Amino acid sequence: MSEYALSDPPTDGVTAVRFGPTGDSLAVTSWDAALRLYDVATADVVVRLPQPAPLLDVDFVDAGSVLSGATDGGLRLHGLETGVERVLGWHASGVRCVRFCGAVGAGVSGSWDRSLKLWDVRTAEACVGTYAQPDKVFALCVGAPGAPPPPAPLVVVATAARHVHLLDLRRPSEPLQRRESALKCQTRAVAQMPGGLGYALGSVEGRVAVEYVDPSAEAQARKYAFKCHRTVVDGVGTAFPVNAICYHPRHGTFATGGCDGHVNVWDGANKKRLCQLPRKPTSVAALAFSADGSRLAVAASYTYEMGERERAPDAVYVRTVAEAEVKPKAKRGDS
Fold this sequence. Notes:
mainly beta; 4-stranded antiparallel sheet; globular
């Protein structure tokens, strides 16, 4: 079976999916205020931790613990085997994004309170820095799961008003670069290329931009943007938000998930779509590749892009990835 649904899915709005370091577990967060951990092989929930507020994001610290960010502003460290939970600290508003950067051994959180915080999960006073951002943080990324760490631990922060800041986590107080998104509408997702040479941004207008970190004119000439997740609805061409982007750790291709229910896989280097997976019954809200790239987690969960309406129940799928779906095709004449 190449794809299957996990049992006992969230009941209200999946916000994030994230594989564990070995790829045999999957953490899932949602608006139903519960953190779920699934055994990927059996598709069953093995840990369910009720929370005081809806959860917006999650990331693994190691195989036994995860960080979560919640709408109440709390950043929490959860012991998956012990069930012990520790509040590391607070933002003044909802924590939209959470990532753990192994290169510096620190957690990173971005919030609607217009700040980025760094956390040392080993210490009692966990917050080691607070850094103002130009607007509400909507998305951030720290490396690509499973990929070798880049030369510098780079975080890409995308905020409201189309700001994009690139920061070195060793010196986060001053951005390396301040940019404006090449996309005309609000950023919804960002993901780094394996190796950290660039990143992809997705927006609510059904477009993706591929950008490069190197500020030289030669490197910047390679950046581009393209339309995606667009279809005809009732005879009208409609653009759907791009909710999620994730890079394949070995091949450097990337997947996008949109409110049209589709997952597309792209060869960014050659500017081609490799495949389109079968349509889900509702919006694709979140995506994640496992660290070895053999699996893709897909959250099908309505994101209210068309307001209140009848919708399919939330579901989380795990797909065993075929090489043809994610590996760039050899150019004619290549050996």
